[in-house]
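#structure-requests
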Amino acid sequence: MLDPERTNVSQRKKRKCPICGKPTAEEVKPFCSVRCQQVDLNRWLDGSYRIETDERPGDEAPADPDERD
């Protein structure tokens, strides 16, 4: 069980920026700067964070069971 005395904000472990590892800034959490925030956004937009699969687009099953062949 957590001790309420140990859960104070000042005693919690400081989070690090997921891009560069520096301490986070309150204004751009969970990042340390606007630059790291924009680097992360660019990675999402260019597909760097996608999960590789063997499926191709169009391999999904139809949502409506009546549409199956």
